[in-house]
Amino acid sequence: MTMPLESFDPQLRANDFVQDLKWDEGLRARFVADEDAVLAGYDMTGAERAAIRERDFRALHDMGLHPYLLSQLARLVFGTGENAGSSTPATALLRSLLGDDYDRYVTSRG
To answer: Which InterPro entries did the record assign (predicted)?
Structure first.
């Protein structure tokens, strides 16, 4: 796996989308109500839109989404959790990034 910023592509349009989603409560409400319509309003590739729809954080990472924004997207689409590292957003992000290594990672942490 590459280091987090090695894959970062500041030109990736999904970066703008996640920033907007993070800061605009109205956009978040529209996203919950009609995700496809909101995604269609952004100049992203089909692959970016598909990865967001599928919650494929690994694909977004590989395309160049900033690592911080990956975690923010997980938090925004799954809600926040209080158990650091074990919340639904954190688990979804780790599963997507680690793939087949996820179970090994969880086991190694006790």
So the answer is: LigA_sf (IPR036622), Xdiol_dOase_LigA (IPR011986)
Please tell me what DSSP assigns to residue 56. -
Question: In this structure, what CATH number is given to the domain that contains residue 74?
Answer: 1.10.700.10
Task: Name the DSSP class of 55.
Answer: T
Q: In this structure, what token pair is assigned to residue 39?
A: 């995604």
Helix, strand, or coil (residue 43): coil
Whether 41 maps to a domain, the answer reads yes
pLDDT in tens, 7-61: 899 999 999 999 999 999 899 999 999 999 999 999 999 999 999 999 999 999 9
Residue at 32 is within a domain: yes
> What is the residue range of 74's domain?
8-108
Q: Which of 77, 15, 23 is nearest to 43 (CA)?
A: 15
- Residues 91, 53: Cα–Cα separation, whole Å: 17
